[in-house]
């Protein structure tokens, strides 16, 4: 990482941390809890960050297949600036005095979709991504309604049956390929 990028990351996280501390001070002040305010401020009135205190990072990942997951990481406040360099490219969603939520939009499908994802036809005629086989109806993501009459007339019977049973998706290339292949059968409503 270049020195300029590193500086930008530290500056961004510093602002977020300061914002979280200020919000916490305001909340405590609003509640009239002077003892809480005293803990957040030192005798000079500046934010008091305790070196051994713990700060929670919530890492929220949003995948192309519609899956969202979270990971919780505990970091000592005196190590926060160093750790934040590891999360370059993550968006700060929320900053609080003891917790920060970061979000990243992954340009991939989720590991759970790679493990057991199938694209098929849902009971309502929608092209969908399922966790498991379509017969189990555990829909992860829906795409669009399929013109089943057009598809049955155009596709070989075996290919149509494969789609009804579910086409296994193991990676982003397969996911995109299947969506592209069946996009021409999207129901136009006419």
Automatic annotation (TrEMBL):
Pfam families: BofC_C. Gene3D superfamilies: Bypass-of-forespore C, C-terminal domain, Bypass-of-forespore C, N-terminal domain. The keyword Nuclease does not apply. Keywords: Membrane, Transmembrane, Transmembrane helix. The keyword Cell inner membrane does not apply. The chain crosses the membrane at residues 7-28. Residues 107-182 form the Bypass of forespore C C-terminal domain. This is BofC protein. It comes from Brevibacillus antibioticus. The lineage of its organism: Bacteria, Bacillati, Bacillota, Bacilli, Bacillales.
């Amino acid at each position: 990482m270049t020195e300029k990028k590193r500086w930008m990351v530290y500056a961004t996280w510093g602002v977020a941390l300061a914002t979280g501390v200020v919000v916490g001070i305001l909340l405590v002040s609003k509640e009239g809890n002077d003892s809480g305010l005293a803990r957040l401020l030192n005798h000079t009135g500046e934010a008091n960050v305790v070196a051994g205190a713990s700060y929670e990072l919530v890492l929220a990942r949003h995948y192309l297949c519609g899956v969202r997951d979270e990971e919780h990481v505990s970091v000592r406040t005196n190590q926060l600036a160093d750790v934040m360099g590891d999360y370059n490219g993550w968006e700060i969603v929320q900053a609080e005095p003891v917790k920060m939520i970061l979000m990243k939009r992954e340009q991939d499908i989720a590991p759970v979709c790679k493990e057991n994802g199938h694209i098929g036809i849902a009971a309502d005629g929608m092209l969908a991504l399922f966790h498991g086989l379509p017969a189990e109806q555990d829909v992860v993501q829906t795409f669009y309604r399929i013109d089943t009459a057009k598809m049955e007339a155009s596709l070989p019977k075996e290919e149509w049956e494969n789609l009804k049973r579910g086409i296994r998706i193991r990676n982003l290339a397969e996911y995109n390929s299947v969506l592209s292949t069946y996009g021409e059968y999207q129901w136009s409503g006419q």
